[in-house]
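Running this now, will post back.
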Amino acid sequence: MYGDKAYDTLSKYYQLQQQNDERALANLRMQQAYWQSQLNNEVVGSDSWLAIKKHLDDVTDDLNKKLEDMVKRLADIWEQRVISITARMNNALTGGRGLDYLDEQWDYINDYDDNFLDTLESRFGIQ
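Update: finished.
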């Protein structure tokens, strides 16, 4: 879509998905209530009761699957938020250059210091 770093776009996408899931969940709950009321009006064990019971079981299975999907999506949303916060903090702390750049600069400074000290030690005969 827009890449892994399009945090604002991904946040909006997840928000829309969550709204759709909540509507679907409400619809499934209404279906479940309907089939339960129909089941309550039938004689237990009759052919119509069995048919309605099958519909109720199917809707209940769909409802449970939707809830599982929503929980997984919530975990994805939280993971994305943590990644977004970490990236923003990284940019704020490094002036947008990133921690990898700072790590390279740190290595460069250490290498320079080592070479500088080696040169001084060899010139002055210091061990």
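The chain has two domains: 7-96, 97-127. More later if anyone needs it.
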